[in-house]
Amino acid sequence: MYSYEALPVAEWFRRNRELAGFHNSTRALYQTIRELVENSLDATETYGILPTIYLRVAVEDEQKSWVSVYAEDNGIGIPGNEIPNVFGRVFYSSKYRIKQHRGVFGLGLKMVVLYAQSTTNKPVLVRSATLKSDKIYEYQIMIDTNANSPIILDRREYPNKYRWHGTAVKVVLEGNWLGAKKRIEDYLRRTAIIAPYAEIVFKGPDMDLWLKRRTTKLPPAPKEGLPHPKSVDVDTIKQMLLDSRGMTLLEFLTENFDAVGEGTAKAFLEWAGFNPNAKATALTPEELVRLVEKMKQYEGWRRPRADWLSPVGAELLEIGAKAILGAEAVFAVTRKPESYGGHPFIVEAAVAWGGQIPPSDKPLLLRYANKIPLLYDEGADVARKVVDEFHWDNYKVKFPAPLAVIIHVCSTKIPYASAGKEAIAEVAEIEKEMRLALRDAAKKLRLYLSRKEKEMELFNKYITFAKYVDEIAHNLSVITRLEKSIIAQNLHKLIEKKLGTTVDELVKHTLSLTSASQQEEVTEAMAQ
C-alpha cells in the first residue's frame, strides 16, 4: 500500500538543486558568484546608485573542496527585520512585480544557502544596512526545509558610524575553484560589457581581477506596471478578481490592465459578447474561461508599454565592448519595443570588429537576457541560430574575421529554452527582432569597412605615385635647372589634388581605420 505525503517547497528545491543551476561543485561555485553579483546589481543600478561590488573566493579546506565566497555591494540594503526571510524562505522576494529584473523567481539567494548547508552544514552570514540607517544588522541563517522558514543562529546589531549602506554575504560551500575559474572570469568580464557603469573587484586563490568603471551613466530604471490583457491566464484572473469585489467588467478591465482605457474596454466587451455593467465576480467558471480566451484573441489591444524595461542603450554597449574586448570599432543598436504573448521586450545588438578580437571562422557570440550573461547552452539559443544564418558576406565580412556579436534581450518575461535559464527559446517575434537588430548593426560595420577599404586604396595609390617623385624631380631639375626640392613639393601637391586629400589627412585617417599590424605597415611605407 502506497503512503502519500506533501513535500515542502524548500525541501523540493534542495533535492532538485540542479534545476537552479547547482548541478555539481564546479557549476555551483559559478552559480553562487552569479547570483550574488546579479542581486548586487539589481540593488544598486535600479535605484540610481553606481554599483561597486567586491568579491572574494578563498579555499577553506582543500581536502573537502570547501571554499568561502564573500560578496559586498553598496546597494540600498535590506531592512533588518526582512533579512531572515530574504535569505531563509523560498519564494520570498521583492521581485514578484511586472517589471524587468535580472532574477525571475527570487530563488537564487535561497539556493545558495540550501546548497551550502547541504554540502558543508554552514550557515550564511549576512550583514546589511539600508540608506541612512543608524544600524548595521548581522545574521547567521540556515533554512528549515520542512517548514520553509529561516533558522536564525545568531543576530547582532552594530552602530553605523560611517553611514555605510549595502549588503555583505559570506557563505562556505563545496566548490571546485579550478573547474569554475574560467567561467567565473568570463562571466565577470561579460558583466562588465553590459554594465560598464559598475566597478567589480574580484580576488581568488590565484586570480585577481579589477574591472574599472568606464562611465557614470546608468541605464533608465524599469518602472512597475500592470499585466497586458494577452499575457494573463484563468488563474491570474481569478486572483485579480479577489481584489476587485464590486467592480463591473468595464471597471475591472480599465483598472487592472495595461493600455486599456474605457473606450478600448467597451469595444472589447462588445466584440466578446459580455455586458460591460455585469459584476466581474459574478462570472461563471465557463464565462471566465471564455473571457480569457477572448482577451488573447482580440487584436484591438494596444501593444504593451515598455517603460518597465531597462535596455542598456547603444552608447553603454559600445563603451563596454570597446573596454573589455579591446575592439577596434563597435557598432550597437537598440530596437524599438515589441511584444510576444502580451509581454514587452526590446532587443539590442552590437558588432565589435578588430583590435584584440582574434580572427575566427565564425563570430564570437556574447548572449544576454535582462543584462545577465548567458554562458551555457549556446547551441540551444535562438541567437546562435540567427548569427549562424546571417549573410555576413553582404556586409563585407570574410571569414576568418576578428568579429564579435553581442545580443541582449530584455523583457518582463524572458522565454527561456529550459529550466536552466541559459538559452532563449525560438519565439518568432524575438527571432525577427534579433535579425533586424543584427542587420542594423552590421550595416554600420559595412559602412566602416567600406570607408576603411577606400582609405587604404587611396593610401596605396599615394605610395605608388610617391615612389617616383624623387626620380622625376631629379630629372626635371636637370632639364629646367630648378631646385629639386621645389619640384618634388609641387609633385606632391599634384598627387594630393589627384587623390582629393592631403597627405597628412590621408595618413591620419588610414591610421585611425587600421589595426596595430596594419599601422606598422603604413608607418614603414611612409618611411620608405
TrEMBL record:
One of the GO biological process terms: DNA topological change
Source organism, top-level taxon: Archaea
EC primary class: isomerase
Domain DNA topoisomerase VI subunit B transducer: residue ranges: 304-458
Any one Pfam family match given in the protein's UniProt record, by short name: Topo-VIb_trans
Catalytic activity, EC: 5.6.2.2
Catalytic reactions of this protein: ATP-dependent breakage, passage and rejoining of double-stranded DNA
Alphabetized InterPro entries for the sequence: HATPase_C_sf, HATPase_dom, Ribosomal_Su5_D2-typ_SF, Ribosomal_uS13-like_H2TH, Ribsml_uS5_D2-typ_fold_subgr, TopoVI_B, TopoVI_B_transducer
Keywords: ATP-binding, DNA-binding, Isomerase, Nucleotide-binding, Topoisomerase
Location of the Histidine kinase/HSP90-like ATPase domain: 27-117
GO MF term list: ATP binding; DNA binding; DNA topoisomerase type II (double strand cut, ATP-hydrolyzing) activity
Keyword Metal-binding: no
Binding site for ATP: 39, 73, 94-95, 103-110, 421
Family membership noted in the UniProt record: Belongs to the TOP6B family.
Quaternary structure and partners: Homodimer. Heterotetramer of two Top6A and two Top6B chains.
NCBIfam families, A to Z: PRK04184.1, top6b
Reported function: Relaxes both positive and negative superturns and exhibits a strong decatenase activity.
Protein name: Type 2 DNA topoisomerase 6 subunit B
Species of origin: Pyrobaculum arsenaticum
